[in-house]
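R.M. (postdoc): so does anyone remember the format we settled on? I'll just put the C-alpha cells first.
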C-alpha cells in the first residue's frame, strides 16, 4: 500500500510533515516525522498521530528543542513514480 503524507500541527512546534504508513498485514498505522527517530502507532491515523506526539515530546525532553529543530529538513520535493520493480532487477 502506498505511504500517505499529511500535514499536522504537533504541540507548539511549527507545522511538521507527518508520514502515515498503513500496515497492510496487521492493520493500523505508523506515524513518523522524517529526520526525527520518533514513531507513533495506532489502529487509526488519529491514534498514530497522538502516539507520535507523545514520542516527539519524549524526544524533545531527552535531546532538547534545539537538537530536535536542527534535525528537521523539509523535503525539497515529493513525487509519485509509476514503475515496475521487476524492471529494476532486469536492468
Amino acid at each position: 500500500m502506498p505511504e500517505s503524507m499529511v500535514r499536522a500541527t504537533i504541540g507548539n512546534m511549527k507545522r511538521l510533515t507527518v508520514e502515515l504508513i498503513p500496515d497492510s498485514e496487521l492493520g493500523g498505522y505508523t506515524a513518523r516525522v522524517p529526520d526525527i527517530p520518533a514513531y507513533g502507532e495506532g489502529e487509526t491515523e488519529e491514534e498514530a498521530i497522538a502516539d507520535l506526539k507523545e514520542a516527539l515530546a519524549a524526544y524533545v525532553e531527552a535531546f532538547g528543542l534545539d537538537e530536535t529543530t536542527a534535525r528537521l529538513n523539509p523535503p525539497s520535493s515529493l513525487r509519485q513514480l509509476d514503475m515496475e520493480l521487476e524492471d529494476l532487477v532486469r536492468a
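R.M.: ...and that's the designed sequence above, right after the C-alpha cells. Also worth knowing: The mean pLDDT is 82. The chain is about 35% helix and 25% strand.
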